Amino acid sequence: MEIPMRKITHLVVHCTASPASATKEGILNYWRETRGWNVAGYHVLIEASGLCHRLVPNEHPSNGVRGHNAHSLHVSYIGGIDAKGKPKDTRTPQQKRELLRILRAWKQAHPKAVIVGHRDFPNVQKACPSFDARKEYAHL
Ligand SMILES: [Zn+2]
């Protein structure tokens, strides 16, 4: 049976705030073991190589922003910090390309949804995704 699509109001961009070399397995493990999450943090995770991992179907919520998941889709690139752990836009050209591709498709499917970064939500103390997603994707 087909699952009906949810109403989507926000398309949210994240970084993993981990070294660019972090693996999907390591990130999933961290969510499970350290955070105790049964549901992944994002719908799609993008490696430095541009390889995209589908973690949660868009029909289901993922764990991207507490209190804002019911009506959001979340995409994240692996990286987002420098060698000292400070926020830094570490997106590779491949990650930039895939982010654009995914956000374009999501915006097409949900034209009224707004594209924002995790940090654009109120009371978020993070730099995630380490660049101004609202500005960069305003043209979509
Ligand atoms: Zn985030």
List keywords for this structure.
140 residues; alpha/beta; Lysozyme-like; 3 helices; binds zinc ion
Brief summary of the model shown:
With 140 residues, the protein is α/β, with parallel strands linked by helices. It has helices at 24-35, 93-109, 133-136, and strands at residues 10-15, 44-46, 52-54, 72-77, 114-117. Residues 14, 118, 128 line the site of zinc ion.
Walk me through this protein's architecture.
The protein is of the alpha/beta class and 140 residues long. The chain has one domain: Peptidoglycan recognition protein-like (Lysozyme-like, 3-Layer(aba) Sandwich). The chain contains 3 helices and 5 strands. It has helices at residues 24-35, 93-109, 133-136; strands spanning 10-15, 44-46, 52-54, 72-77, 114-117. A 5-stranded mixed beta sheet has the order 3-2-4-1-5. The longest helix has 17 residues, at 93-109. It is globular, with a radius of gyration of 14 Å. The termini are far apart. The relative contact order is 0.23. The mean pLDDT is 96.
